[in-house]
Structure formats: C-alpha cells, structure tokens
Amino acid sequence: MVSQTYATYWLEEIREDSICTVEQLKDYIALSKKEGEQLKRVIQIHPMRVTPYYLSLIDWDDPRDPIRKMAIPSVHELTLQVSYDTSGEAENTKLRGLQHKYRETALVLATNRCATYCRYCFRKRLVGLPNTEAVEHFNEAANYIRQHQEINNVLISGGDPLVLPTQVIEHFLTTLSDIPHFDFIKFGSKTPVTLPSRFEDKDLLNVLEEYSHSSRRLYVVTQFNHPKEITKHSIKAVNNR
Q1: Which of 55, 70, 66 minimizes the C-alpha distance to 25?
Q2: In a designed cystine with 75, which of 7, 38, 82, 120 is the match (CB 3.0 to 4.6 A)?
C-alpha cells in the first residue's frame, strides 16, 4: 500500500545520477575559486539538479548556450529582487498542496522535486527545498475535489510529479478515478525534455494507458523552451505510448 505522505519519495536514478554540487560541476566547466564559492552560495538558496542527459546537451564552449543558461546556476541569482509568489498561489491554497484559483481547476502540488531544476522556475521558493507546500495527504486533496462539483479538471504539478515512483502516480489516478464530476486529469512534467528515459518505463506507460482509456481524458503537459531540447530521445519520449 502506498503511504499517504510523499515527501521522501524519489526515483532512485535521479537521486543517484544527477549533478547537484559545484564539485560535480567542475568536471564539466572550469571555475575559479571565487566563482565556485559564489555558486555554492546560490545552490544553498536555490538548489541545482541536472540530469546527465540534459547536461549532455550543453555546448560548454559557448557561455551563452541556452541549455546552460536554463540549468546551470548563475551568480545573478544572489541579487534577485522579485516576488517568490508571482501568481498569488498562497492566497489560493485551500489545503496543504492543493490550490483552487480557477473555478473549474484544482491544482495539486505533488512534490517539491524535479529531474532538473530550471533556473527561471516561478516556484523557486519551494523547488528542491524543505517546505510545507507540497501535498502530504493526497486523500485530503481528493476529498476537497470531491466536495466541489464545479471542478471539472485536475492539474497534478509540483515540482514534477513524474519524478515520483510509478506506484505513487498510479495511486493518484486510482484515488481520483471514482470522482464523477471532472472530465480530465493533467500531469505537468518536464521529464520528456530533461529525463526522456522516464518514458521507457513500461510500468509507467501501462498506467498512463490504462487511465487514458477511462471515462475522462489523461494528459501529460510538457514544455520545450529551445530547439536544442528537441532530440531523438525527447521525440521518442513524446511518441511513446
């Protein structure tokens, strides 16, 4: 049986293989002592995590490489003077991990983790950091949705829900499957872009296929930001079924 608390759930391949520290980064790029210390300060505030696959797309000879800019920390992150809640998420949070901003849509923050932490993330306040915003008891979120019949769709986001083990994803879908008044479920995920091997997992594909054949539609919503992200691997991930 899947536990109701998801804070410790994590795909092992991401946990073990990702580049997360300045010392690991030095295997790919030359950093002065000052630069290294500055990046360590950034990572303490806004963690770094990059999959080996996504890192392989970077041209290290090009300081303006778009993948590098999106995935590798910058010292400029130390001087951010911006709101960490640009879309008013706090005021629309009804339960821990559940937001209800738009009448027809419930948003569930399933995890605070991603395969790669994008440097432009609008949830920098929580991604990769200890927090009390990600859902802890999914059944409580499902009960809220069940009680609000105006909700006709659910977006499961985070973080990136597809970094959770397949059994957890199946538990989400099973729990939501008996709620009659919504039409579709969406998973917001960048794994097709940053970890396309996730879609080589037959168990995941089987679960997604099973629930896409139910009475409601099932979508994986992803985001490509630059043509360099479109590779044979990401194309295969999008096409896998």
Answers
A1: 55
A2: 38
Higher pLDDT, 64 or 83: 64
Closest by CA to 193, choosing from 160, 169, 170, is 160
Cβ burial, residue 228 (10 Å; 0-12/13-18/19+)? middle
Residue 241 CB-density burial (10 A; 0-12 exposed, 13-18 middle, 19+ buried) = exposed
% pLDDT > 90, the chain? 72
Residues 6+ apart with CB under 8 A from 234: 192, 193, 196, 224
Assign 146 a pLDDT band (cuts: 50, 70, 90).
very high
How many Cβ atoms from other residues are within 10 Å of residue 107's Cβ?
23
User: What is the spatial distance between Cα 20 and Cα 42, in angstroms, rounded to a whole number?
Assistant: 12
Q: What is the pLDDT of residues 179-192, one digit of tens each?
A: 989 899 999 999 99
**pLDDT value at 12 more than 80:** no
Asked whether 163 and 115 are in contact (CB, 8 A), the reply is yes
> What whole-number distance in Å separates Cα of residue 153 and Cα of residue 103?
10
Of 86-95, 200-209, 212-221, which gets the smallest average pLDDT? 212-221
Chain-centre distance for alpha carbon 112? 7
Q: Which domains does the chain have, with CATH numbers?
A: 12-79 (no CATH), 90-239 (3.20.20.70)
- Name which of 97, 229, 213 is nearest 161 in CA terms: 97
Q: pTM for the whole thing?
A: 0.91
Provide the token pair at 194. Answer: 């940053």
